[in-house]
Amino acid sequence: MKRFAIHDCEQRSPEWFARRSGRLTGSRAADVLATIKSGEAAARRDLRMQLVCERLTGQPQESGYINADMMRGIDLEPVARAAYEVITGDFVTTSGFLALPDLMAGCSLDGHLGDYQTLVSIKCPKTATHIGYLRAGVMPASYVPQMLHELWITGAREYHFLSFDDRLPDALRTFFVRVPRNEDAVQDYADKAKVFLAEVDRETDALRTLANLPSVLQEAV
């Protein structure tokens, strides 16, 4: 039995934004882990307030803005997915939004294999970024929080990361790495995510109590 619910909706559709609203998602996982030497990192604070606002208003706070580089990545994703399938011989299945039933957290996958045993992440970045991945030869650090979040949500055992750039010569177009699940790392992320979500819960509840204060005071008079 899966530990998450599957909401069949197209990514970036109004329903998809609505499903994400108020939930911690993979694209913002890095903000949960953001730290500074003194106090709370702005990215973490801003994310907490975004989720609080979404829960109070029932409306997504994301702008949905897409720049030219992002649009190129979206348009190229099917080609990159096909490149992954050629490299691995595996057929990628796509899904909508996956949500935990007991926590306000979820994720949208680029794809998965089988019954979510393996997750597939496909990126089509700027050429300089892609070349940086090729030179480093490891899972890009900037995507590790998202990877941990998606492994936590799904319980998957392996993560496949593919970067694709069709502007380069054939031999340089793809960067591919397999990452096995590290249970300690996933659990450490999950613990921090739960602490963050508890903070969102407390702040949301406090503001709802404040909103009800006038009626409570009136009844007391």
Task: Please write out the topology.
Layout: E1 5-7, H1 14-20, H2 29-33, H3 42-57, H4 68-88, E2 97-99, E3 106-107, E4 111-113, E5 118-123, H5 127-136, H6 144-154, E6 158-164, E7 174-180, H7 183-220
Helix pairs in contact: 3-7, 6-7
Descriptive report:
This protein is an alpha+beta fold and 221 residues long. The protein has helices at 14-20, 29-33, 42-57, 68-88, 127-136, 144-154, 183-220, and strands at residues 5-7, 97-99, 106-107, 111-113, 118-123, 158-164, 174-180. The strands form 2 sheets. A 4-stranded mixed β-sheet has the order 4-5-6-7, sandwiched between helices. Strands 1-2-3 form a 3-stranded antiparallel β-sheet, with helices on both faces. Strand 4 and strand 5 form a beta hairpin. Helix 3 crosses helix 7 and helix 6 packs across helix 7. The protein is globular, with a radius of gyration of 19 Å. The model has no long low-confidence stretch (mean pLDDT 93).
Proportion of residues in β-strands: 5-15%
Order of secondary-structure elements: EHHHHEEEEHHEEH
Largest sheet descriptor: 4 strands, mixed
Summarize model confidence as the mean pLDDT: 93
Structural class: alpha+beta
Q: Please, how many helices?
A: 7
Kindly provide the radius of gyration, computed on alpha-carbon positions and rounded to a whole number of angstroms: 19 Å
As a percent range, the share of helical residues equals 40-55%
E-strand count: 7
Strand order of the largest sheet: 4-5-6-7
Give the termini separation.
53 Å
Which runs of at least 5 residues are low in confidence (pLDDT < 50)? none
Shape: globular
